[in-house]
């Protein structure tokens, strides 16, 4: 697979929580960090996502915001 996204975080799925229309997929990327993605239930089913499965979080954004107190 080739993809243009440069932010590619490899990890392991720790949860797939199905909602009414979207699923929240939690991926452990190591070092105590977990990335959560919201995807359609249809996509989660097509990808056959399951706990313990290796996966990659791909992050593509035009802006990164920073906030401080």
UniProtKB/TrEMBL annotation:
Transmembrane segments: none annotated. It holds the Pfam family TOBE. Gene3D superfamilies: 2.40.50.100. Coiled coil: none annotated. Keywords: Molybdenum. GO terms for biological process: molybdate ion transport. Residues 2-68 form the Mop domain. NCBIfam families: Mop (TIGR00638). This is Molybdo-pterin binding protein. It comes from Rhodopseudomonas palustris (strain ATCC BAA-98 / CGA009).
